[in-house]
Design brief:
This protein is an all-alpha fold and about 70 residues long. Helix content is about 85%, strand content about 0%. It contains 3 helices and no strands. The radius of gyration is 27 Å and the shape is elongated.
């Protein structure tokens, strides 16, 4: 019985250490996240400032400002 309890305790400690060891991101993961966010922002900026999308957004704003209250 002592060996079974010891094995269970060892497995529990191993699981706790494994869970705690992967608690956050490392610097390289932060850097990749920032690069991905900047790339997405650039693509979004290009889409929003394109001619067709810009005209549609201006039309939406114009209709909203011309709406009767």
């Amino acid at each position: 019985m002592y060996k079974a309890v010891r094995a269970r305790m060892r497995a529990l400690v191993w699981r706790v250490r494994a869970a705690r060891g992967d608690a956050g991101m490392v610097t390289s993961e932060y850097a990749m996240g920032i690069v991905a966010a900047v790339a997405f922002a650039v693509v979004l900026y290009k889409v929003v400032t394109s001619g067709e999308v810009s005209e549609e957004l201006q039309a939406i704003v114009k209709r909203a400002l011309d709406a009767r209250m």
